[in-house]
Amino acid sequence: MTVQSIRVSDFTRLPGPRYIREGPFSGEQYRTQRLAPAFEAAFRAGQTLEVDLDGMKYGYPASFLEESFGGLCRLWTDPKEAPKLLTPDQVWNQLSIKSNDDPTLVTTVNRYIQEANERKTTGR
Amino acid sequence: MWIGPYVLLLIGLCIGWVARSFWASPAIPASTVFSAAVALFIGWLIQSALRRQGELSKVPIDAVGGLCKRLDELIVDCLKTSPDTKAADPALLTKLRSLANEVTWLCAIAGNLKCEPALANLVKNSHQDLFDAATMGEYFDAATSTAAGHRLRARTLALQWDICQRVLERSNKPKALRRLLETLDPESNGR
User: Which of A18, A119, B29, B53 has the fewest CB atoms inside 10 Å of its own CB, making it the most exposed?
Assistant: First the structure.
């Protein structure tokens, strides 16, 4: 399977809070402007989306990652909103997470995707 | 092998012989002097081998001790964060990223020494809990973070204990232990 790539560092090197109303460069903003469109494009092209998490100045807050990746999973597992209904496993398999700066983030993102529907709802 | 032990054996034999000939009773048989010197020699060999093994196993144990001390300090530093600190605070994120790297390193050592995988998983899980507690909300959650931090410290101690046990189990095979630890460096090629 071919791969499309995006880098979070192209969006910001200082990831912010969870929601747009809480401050700049939020997880919600990243999801709606970058991650979700790239994910949908990769999905429609039958490709894997590689997300490069490296290059942050300080690191990620959990809220940013949860809102980006957990929010993406909530969107694609919601029967009313999903462009095509997927399971959390299918969302995860569609992604390839690269994180050399902090290798624990790969497991973290996987967990946020698997537990997405047990957590807060998107855009609250 | 270093010639020291043989010199020691020779000196012991000479002293024994002189004592037998000029000072003690010449009635002491030469074989007794020889057996005493050999016993001394073997005793010295055993104690030096044991000491060498002890010193060799101290190297990885000290390294793991230092690593766990750094982990402990980073956890305490994170827990000192004020509750009005935002989750995206650079100082907090820097500490958490350092903590994540130290946890990864500790678990890599534990994996190479064939420690109980459940112990390493508990450390990883409690690290994730601390990361979530500290930065999942808009602000640092001191109460939840403190509980997660205490769990991480306790589990790190348990893993440190297991690593030390694995090192001591291999203390009579220092070369095998060194080979296991060298695989942590992918570029070492077993050198």
Answer: B29
